[in-house]
Specification:
This protein has 489 residues and is α/β, with parallel strands linked by helices. It folds into two domains: 32-270 and 472-488, Aldehyde Dehydrogenase, Chain A, domain 1 (3-Layer(aba) Sandwich), CATH 3.40.605; 275-462, Aldehyde Dehydrogenase, Chain A, domain 2 (3-Layer(aba) Sandwich). Helices cover 41% and strands 18% of the residues. The strands form six sheets. The chain has a seven-stranded mixed β-sheet, with helices on both faces. Strands 9-8-7-10-11-21 form a six-stranded mixed β-sheet, with helices on both faces. The protein is globular, with a radius of gyration of 23 Å. The chain starts with a helix and ends with a strand. 53% of the residues are buried. The structure holds 1,4-dihydronicotinamide adenine dinucleotide and magnesium ion. The site of 1,4-dihydronicotinamide adenine dinucleotide has 26 residues, from helix 9, helix 10 and helix 13.
Length: 489
């Protein structure tokens, strides 16, 4: 039980929202999903299927085909044929029409996609409805606009497509990551073999249905489902010309080694351990909302999550008190409920990894704070967690936890904040909170991070590039930079 609750009994009387579950009546799901190869849904050569479950209920949703090397080969061959015979010859303005059509169809099916995303992956419906699905559509719209303007995007250079792009994506933003990968590849005239993560294949397969319905020429996009070895078969296929991967740093390293010495192009978007840095002159209530949004919404399943907090000493006490108060009000539970802030952890494995880190943090001597909320009996849930009094060498400060766990440190000077923020193996993002513009510019130029937000956090737009430094990977997605990753000059 938290001190705050004890101190303010009337503030936290048991006020609750009435349940407000999003309806599932409108969604269409099959019991079994096949592989999407050459424009058709086909049975896997492996003859194997695996279950995808709802992490909030532990119930099976559907069976998903497991692609083996033979299936991957069929998909890559389909993509290569489509590239050679159709897609690379098609004028940009014609390619754009298909990409626009896919964007519009995502918008038309937004409700269905949001509900399926939440059921399959566990994220709160508010996130999938307001962030994942609209941003996925926006990515297709944005890149559709570039398809016939590549010479203007890169003046005095001769942009040329690469061929077949092999794309492997994680489970934290299943549909959005598919959009980030597929949209720029198509706009630049490449064809695609994409593999979603094994716990969250459904929205990629719904996207396959959209792509089929859009009339996109057969084989231009192929979606194969399966585990790590399916991904490895894509990476290692001789006819794949470019690999784009988002996921763990460990697998990123395996992929980088696997393609060393080939002429495959590579972009890696890996882990992160971003700091929100709050200065004494910051708008504190706004900062608290940004911190909460940065690490707790979406269960901390965000590579650019603000999983560290650096707060200047003079405001540390008040900021942490405000943060604890706000954490007491967070609603953890049914991801389909529109009031839920923190949904289910994506898988049992991920939950045990997070719980392991919660033990590590406690054993390292950090002070733990969790709000007094209760967790649902079934499903994989985790309380939002603060670790106070952490030091730079603590594992909960250095390592990516990928859960709703925030490590808090204090600092005195600007230099100390920069030093602490940068002194980790990752460099994906950071957040600066201050009233002073000059401090923002100073900090943003000194952060070794791909994205720096000022007085906000986790804001995305297809026009702005995203990617990391150090062990967070290399290459950029989004914006003009995201086009260059799919072109030769
Ligand atoms: P992962 O990196 O194993 O999985 C990501 C994707 O890579 C999945 O589609 C998976 O099937 C595929 N994959 C796995 N092994 C492969 C291989 N050898 N070759 C090609 N593809 C392969 O991530 P996992 O195990 O699901 O999560 C572990 C940790 O990774 C998390 O706790 C988190 O710290 C981090 N992570 C980071 C993400 C990010 O966006 N930066 C996303 C997901 C996880
Ligand atoms: Mg699932």
């Amino acid at each position: 039980m938290s001190k705050i609750k004890e101190n303010n009994p009337e503030y936290f009387t048991d006020w609750k929202y009435a349940p407000s579950p999003e309806s599932k009546d409108h969604i269409r799901l099959q019991n079994r999903y096949e592989l999407f190869i050459n424009g058709k849904f086909v049975k896997p050569n492996s003859k194997k299927y695996f279950d995808t479950i709802n992490p909030a209920t532990e119930e099976k949703i559907a069976e998903i085909a497991e692609a083996n090397e033979k299936d991957v080969d069929l998909a890559v061959t389909a993509a290569k044929n489509a590239y050679d015979k159709v897609w690379k010859k098609m004028p940009g303005k014609e390619r754009a029409k298909y990409i626009y059509r896919i964007a519009r169809m995502i918008q038309e099916k937004a409700r269905e996609l949001a509900v399926i995303e939440t059921m399959d992956g566990g994220k709160a419906i508010r996130e999938s409805r307001d962030i994942d699905v609209p941003l996925a559509a926006n990515h297709f719209f944005y890149y559709a606009g570039w398809a016939d303007k590549l010479e203007y995007a890169f003046p005095n250079r001769k942009p040329q497509s690469l061929g077949v792009a092999g794309q492997i994506i994680p489970w934290n933003f299943p549909l959005l990551m598919a959009a980030w990968k597929i949209a720029p590849a198509l706009a630049t005239g490449n064809t695609v073999v994409l593999k979603p993560a094994e716990t969250t294949s459904l929205t990629a397969l719904k996207l396959a249905e959209i792509i089929q319905e859009s009339g996109l020429p057969e084989g231009v996009v192929n979606i194969v489902t399966g585990f790590g070895n399916t991904g490895a078969a894509i990476v290692n296929h001789a006819n794949v010309n470019k690999v784009a991967f988002t996921g763990s740093t460990d697998v990123g390293k395996i992929i980088q080694k696997a393609i060393a010495g080939t002429n495959k192009k590579l972009t890696l978007e890996l882990g992160g351990k971003a700091a929100n840095i709050v200065f004494e002159d910051a708008p504190l209530d706004q900062a608290v909302e940004g911190i909460i949004n940065g690490i707790f919404f979406n269960q901390g399943h965000v590579c650019c999550a603000g999983s560290r907090l650096l707060v200047q000493e003079g405001v540390a006490e008040i900021l942490i008190r405000k943060l604890k108060d706000r954490m007491e009000t967070l609603i953890v539970g049914d991801p389909l409920d529109k009031n839920t802030d923190i949904g289910a952890i994506n898988s049992k494995e991920q939950l045990s990894k997070i719980n392991e880190y919660i033990k590590i943090g406690t054993n390292e001597g950090a002070e733990i704070f969790q709000p007094s909320c209760s967790l649902p009996k079934k499903g994989f849930f985790c309380k939002p967690t603060l670790f106070l009094n952490t030091s730079q060498s603590h594992r909960v400060v250095q390592e990516e936890i990928f859960g709703p766990v925030l490590a808090v440190q204090t600092f005195r000077t600007v230099e100390e904040a920069i030093e602490k923020a940068n002194n980790i193996p990752f460099g994906l993002s950071a957040g600066i909170w201050t009233d002073k513009g000059s401090k923002i510019f100073n900090m943003t130029s000194k952060m070794r991070a791909g994205v720096v937000w000022a007085n906000t956090y986790n804001k995305f737009d297809p026009t702005s590039p995203f990617g990391g430094y150090k062990e967070s990977g290399f290459g950029r997605e989004g914006g003009l930079h995201g086009l260059a990753a799919y072109l030769n000059f």
